[in-house]
């Protein structure tokens, strides 16, 4: 059943619990957990779903089931058991005692993927902070397998030995990282101020992981002819391909340039510490004029994607911004088959970034939804008003500049205030 390549990967069993009161589609949630295991470099050999009235405080799934899992692990040569929910330190310890395998919960798995993927210094610090906060109340539970040989999934990130030192040391480290992140935030706000001077409207791409945000970003930047400064972003069929925010330029049908920012994808039950830690990076969303909420229309559970994103946007306090819900991957599904809770969708559009379907319509919608703060103008500035040219060069992205006999001709998009102030220089 396993391929050559898979045989070197850690073999995992995934375990989910469906409570009687749960409304989530457990199969879909387990499919996602399997993808998360793959993204962490493991291979899922088997899965178990248990229906319960309530969670078992000591063992999460109950002692009998844990014993069953132990036998399963021996039979199928499984090294790792991954739970679809967050476990307490005591539950991890108890389960490890019975199952005698590494126990990783969903939170730790996601943190592990992030730890492996983070590239920027800030990204690494953010993940490390979330990991330390997750591990702090679970130190005792973790001691056992962190000291085991091998490491692997669930053990990467902050140095294992460090976790073996005392709580106070970890608290001090958390403190230091928080300070370093504050500094990084300051640096980012300086950069942002510089960008704000360019006065370009900002469109932020948000949504569930693997929905196609980066693919759409690459399509949108193709609208700008100055492509040499517009590097494409990374697209991959894997959860959490994008971890760092990036900013590129696009152009609306009316010629107005705009900035697009891609962000880290969301997933259901995203660890709170991680959201907390990533709030700095996600803050870019706060400065956007418009949000494009990208949804993978081909996924069977649209509501999970939509509500997860909605809740995170709510936490970031950005729900008052205009939002267009972009149903992507329409090449894989039909509009009639889409079932979702319309309460979370205001304006919507159905596209395929891969097949370039309906992108023009999307650009028109973006144009209409962006606050009309900017107007494209062609100005002729006499030579005795050269300081004005300098003002435009310093404060705006100038599309074109030409020095003619009668003065400086300059093409650019300006805000409403400047439009009124300098309307007498408009040449056409
Ligand atoms: N069929 C189809 N596949 C698409 C479409 N758009 C994106 N994809 C594929 O979906 C996968 C994920 O695309 P990304 O653009 O990396 O998704 P993302 O939302 O940026 O994902 P993260 O960065 O992981 O959050 C890739 O394999 C894309 O090729 C589409 O319109 N149709
Ligand atoms: Mg991406």
From TrEMBL:
Cofactor(s) the protein requires to work: Mg(2+)
InterPro entries in alphabetical order: G_HFLX_dom, GTP-bd, GTP-bd_M, GTPase_HflX, GTPase_HflX_N, GTPase_HflX_N_sf, P-loop_NTPase
Keyword Nucleotide-binding: yes
Keyword terms of this UniProt record: Coiled coil, Cytoplasm, GTP-binding, Magnesium, Metal-binding, Nucleotide-binding
SUPFAM superfamilies: P-loop containing nucleoside triphosphate hydrolases
Protein residues bound to GTP: 207-214, 240-244, 262-265, 328-331, 352-354
GO MF entry, a single one: GTPase activity
Coiled-coil segments: 160-194
GO cellular component, one term: cytoplasm
Keyword Methyltransferase: no
CDD domains for this protein: HflX
Domain Hflx-type G: 201-374
Annotated Pfam families: GTP-bdg_M (PF16360), GTP-bdg_N (PF13167), MMR_HSR1 (PF01926)
Record: residues binding Mg(2+): 214, 242
Cellular compartments annotated: Cytoplasm
NCBIfam families attached to this UniProt entry: GTP_HflX
Described purpose of this protein according to its UniProt entry: GTPase that associates with the 50S ribosomal subunit and may have a role during protein synthesis or ribosome biogenesis.
UniProt subunit comment: Monomer. Associates with the 50S ribosomal subunit.
UniProt record similarity statement: Belongs to the TRAFAC class OBG-HflX-like GTPase superfamily. HflX GTPase family.
Name of the protein: GTPase HflX
Source species: Keratinibaculum paraultunense
Organismal lineage: Bacteria, Bacillati, Bacillota, Tissierellia, Tissierellales
């Amino acid at each position: 059943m396993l391929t050559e390549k898979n045989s070197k990967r850690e073999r995992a069993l995934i375990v989910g619990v469906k409570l009687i009161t749960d409304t989530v589609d457990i199969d879909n949630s387990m499919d996602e957990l399997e993808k998360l295991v793959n993204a962490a470099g493991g291979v899922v050999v088997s899965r178990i779903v248990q229906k319960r009235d309530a969670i078992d405080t000591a063992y999460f799934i109950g002692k009998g089931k844990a014993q069953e899992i132990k036998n399963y692990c021996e039979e199928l040569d499984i090294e790792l058991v991954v739970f679809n929910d967050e476990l307490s330190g005591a539950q991890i310890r108890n389960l490890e005692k019975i199952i005698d395998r590494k126990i990783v919960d969903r939170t730790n798995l996601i943190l592990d993927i992030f730890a492996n993927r983070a590239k920027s210094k800030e990204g690494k610090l953010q993940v490390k902070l979330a990991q330390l906060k997750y591990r702090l109340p679970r130190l005792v539970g973790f001691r056992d397998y962190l000291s085991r040989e091998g490491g692997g999934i669930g053990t990467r990130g902050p140095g294992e030995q460090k976790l073996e030192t005392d709580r106070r040391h970890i608290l001090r480290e958390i403190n230091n990282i928080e300070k370093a992140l504050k500094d990084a935030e300051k640096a980012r706000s300086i950069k942002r101020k510089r960008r704000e001077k360019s006065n370009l409207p900002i469109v932020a791409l948000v949504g569930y992981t693997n929905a196609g945000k980066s693919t759409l970003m690459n399509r949108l930047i193709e609208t700008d002819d100055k492509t040499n400064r517009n590097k494409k972003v990374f697209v991959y069929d894997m959860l959490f391909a994008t971890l760092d925010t990036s900013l590129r330029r696009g152009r609306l049908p009316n010629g107005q340039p705009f900035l697009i920012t891609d962000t880290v994808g969301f997933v259901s039950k995203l660890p709170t510490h991680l959201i907390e830690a990533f709030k700095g990076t996600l803050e870019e969303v706060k400065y956007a004029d418009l949000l494009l909420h990208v949804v993978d229309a081909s996924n069977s559970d649209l509501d999970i994607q939509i509500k997860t994103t909605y809740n995170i946007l709510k936490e970031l306090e950005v729900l008052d911004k205009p939002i267009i819900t972009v149903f992507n991957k329409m090449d894989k599904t039909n509009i009639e088959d889409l079932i979702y809770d319309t309460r979370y969708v205001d304006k919507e559009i159905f596209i395929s970034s891969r097949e370039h379907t309906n992108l023009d319509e999307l650009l028109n919608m973006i144009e209409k939804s962006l606050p009309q703060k900017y107007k494209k103008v062609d100005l002729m500035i006499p030579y005795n008003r050269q300081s004005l040219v300098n003002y435009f060069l310093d404060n705006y992205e100038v599309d074109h500049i030409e020095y003619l006999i009668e003065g400086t001709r300059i093409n650019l998009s300006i805000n409403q205030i400047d439009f009124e102030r300098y309307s007498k220089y408009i040449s056409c």
